[in-house]
From TrEMBL:
One of its GO terms (biological process) is phosphorelay signal transduction system. This is Two-component system response regulator. Residues 4-122 form the Response regulatory domain. It comes from Marinibactrum halimedae. PROSITE patterns: RESPONSE_REGULATORY. Keywords: Phosphoprotein.
């Protein structure tokens, strides 16, 4: 009987990406999907599933609610459950552990990180195909980021830590946006002395900032345009540069120090200035979340500062 793996996420982009990687790495496995916990319940009731990979924050029924239901159901009580989430704080993970999660993977993630989690759970359950045994050894050790053990007393995470506010404040990009001296459109930042129409971030003298996380690193950024569909702005060029269509998690700084955390992907990446040595990258991240609760707070913020 072929392996059956259920992928649960309200973002079609994430579901499709995970399913593609699973099919490439586990040929012959049956990959099912659901857009929220309630629909996942319907799939689980139809027959046994070998592994569930689920988002945590979803409309209708969250990942936590789905997990608690599974652990109370005789058929699903022992089904391995890997939480996939953009929230990696210790308190959040401990809560998931208490609900019965087997492991967790932080967004954004690399394909090898995803498969390391999958192989680990299949091996524990004695269901990993022999053809995948060698692949599991490639990255199954050393993927500290996203492990339950790392956040509940095990070894420290190898993923770069989140940028501190002091670091963001000292970043030259955040201190001064690129000028608009280039007339052919390569420099998109608006000069403070320009009589041109004020940008959205100047409304109410508010400068929006965010921290962008992507598979091979993270970077603070200045937000120039923000809607419920996408976010555009400038980030500093470093050794770790995202690629087009890479996953992204945008931690947008709200009022009173709170954060709006939104999942997406890079749909635009270009030089911020017409210079091969420019230190500025212009980006657009298109959001993929479909959670009304998540966007309610963000919509109020947008209405106040970006309209």
């Amino acid at each position: 009987m072929p392996l059956k793996i259920l992928v649960v996420d309200d973002a079609a982009f994430i579901r499709d990406m995970v399913k593609k990687q699973l099919r490439q790495s586990l040929p012959g496995a049956e990959i099912l999907d659901a857009i929220d916990g309630r629909r996942a319940m319907s799939v689980l009731r139809k027959g046994p599933i070998d592994l569930v990979l689920s988002d945590w924050e979803m409309p209708e029924m969250s990942g936590e609610e789905l997990l608690r239901w599974m652990r109370s159901d005789d058929q699903c009580a022992k089904t391995p459950f890997v939480m996939i989430t953009s929230r990696g704080d210790r308190a959040h993970v401990v809560k998931a552990v208490e609900a019965g999660v087997n492991d967790y993977l932080g967004k954004p993630f690399k394909p090898d990180e995803l498969m390391a989690k999958v192989y680990k759970q299949l091996k524990r359950a004695g269901k990993m195909p022999s053809a995948a045994e060698q692949k599991s050894a490639e990255k199954s050790r050393g993927v500290a980021f996203g492990s339950v053990e790392a956040l509940t007393g095990g070894k420290a995470s190898s993923r770069p830590k989140a940028q501190k506010a002091s670091i963001a404040a000292s970043n030259p990009l955040l201190a001064k946006a690129p000028s608009n001296s280039n007339k052919n459109g390569s420099g998109q930042g608006a000069s403070k002395k320009s009589p041109a129409k004020k940008s959205a971030t100047q409304k109410g003298k508010h400068e929006a900032r965010a921290n962008l996380r992507f598979p091979n690193g993270e970077s603070p950024c200045v937000v120039r345009e923000l809607s419920l569909q996408a976010m555009s702005g400038f980030m500093q060029r470093t050794e770790a540069i995202p690629a087009l269509f890479d996953q992204a998690v945008a931690d947008i700084e709200m009022e009173e120090g709170s954060l709006a955390r939104v999942n997406g992907y890079f749909s635009v990446l270009e030089a911020g200035e017409n210079n091969v040595n420019t230190r500025i990258i212009k980006f657009t991240v298109r959001f993929v979340d479909n959670d009304p609760d998540k966007f309610e707070v963000l919509s109020k913020y947008i209405a106040r500062y970006f309209r």
